[in-house]
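Any chance you could type out some protein's one-letter sequence along with its backbone structure tokens so I can compare the two?
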Amino acid sequence: MASAASITSPSLLQPPSSTSSATTRLSSPSSLRLSSSLRPPLRRLAFSAADSLLSLHVAARTRSAGASGRGPRGVVSMAKKSVGDLKEEDLKGKKVFVRADLNVPLDGEQNITDDTRIRAAVPSIKYLINNGAKVILSSHLGRPKGVTPKFSLSPLVPRLSELLGIQVVKADDCIGPEVEKLVASLQDGSVLLLENVRFYPEEEKNDPEFAKKLASLADLYVNDAFGTAHRAHASTEGVTKYLKPSVAGFLLQKELDYLVGAVSEPKRPFAAIVGGSKVSSKIGVIESLLEKCDILLLGGGMIFTFYKAQGLSVGSSLVEEDKLELATSLLAKAKAKGVSLLLPTDVIIADKFAPDANSKVVPASAIPDGWMGLDIGPDSVKTFSDALDKTKTVIWNGPMGVFEFDKFAVGTEAIAKKLAELSGKGTTTIIGGGDSVAAVEKVGVADVMSHISTGGGASLELLEGKELPGVNALDEAVPVAVS
């Protein structure tokens, strides 16, 4: 484990309350999406990197199911029964309620602009239909207030049908007599897509009667919607009370294997990179990772709070005054645990928060009044890269600077490229959702990362060590020793 905390100087990010659209971090990286036709198939963000990786993951789990019907488990503490544990005799002719996350972006003409989440759902659905199941597919789209036509799932049908290689039938509701008739007419190996489950407010309220109506359509349940697994909704948690077995889909299981398994039992040295604008949004993640990692690299606007807590001048950089004491305690905790906590030694500062701002590189301890840090500097990039060189596991959550502005994206892009290099050398690289996903996609290195999480809020909560209601509700797997 690395020795005492190495604290030297602050890093970057956005000023308070800027009205620029870039001040909204790319938790949903819409600025990277382009409206276009789906020829050729779109390859963007999150799961675009994981197509081949998920295929290998699914194949391995399917093979391992073999005669026992049980897949491998690397996470005893959160080991859940997986769809890969179910054999043909468990599935043929059975009606399976599948909760997927098909919350894809649509343009003004209802064209899909990023089909990542649809593609992410395909492996579990294909496994089910190939084993003769009748799939009843459920999802939400947007944040509708009651029945809202623009949030209908109808625009998803052509792309979903194309990816599955069969014609998907679409229902006009998600419960009721007409839906029941469509379910009754399903043939083995077919798929029925229900209408937006959030058209009913009972969904987010996890209303038991609504959950019972959804569950009455099926014989068993598969949750493959990691992005909503941190919510106790009727279709993610409520239905499990009425459907058995209730199991994880391949995507959900892969998220657990990496975000819990690889982090709980990492190959060492284990480094964590945490960025973003505010300490307050990453407190839980930092505290949790300090219990597990050997090296912790901090970037983003949060750094100025750490440095002001140490008496340094930060100019007009973003500072959370009410988190100064917390920052001090986190630094002390890192030192006590022998975690090497690295802060940038130099920063790129700007005279305003804008893509065309005047900028220069200064030591982190020498930020002049009226200037703000918007990226980590070249010395910090080298220091961080050197620290990562011998790592065997790295998890990254949050950018190093205002990477939406090309002028201040150098640090974030350098980290992305470094992780791509490490991946090629066998290091396990985990991109923990949100802005980090957008960054590796922007740089074009997403395909080589070990795992790219599809869930922003769910990823954060899992890394914080919180329990996810949609996961906890699933059936436990029989623990299997890890070789």
In short: The first strand starts at residue 95 and ends at 99. The CA atoms of residues 297 and 384 lie 7 Å apart. The chain has 15 helices and 15 strands. The longest helix spans residues 51-65.
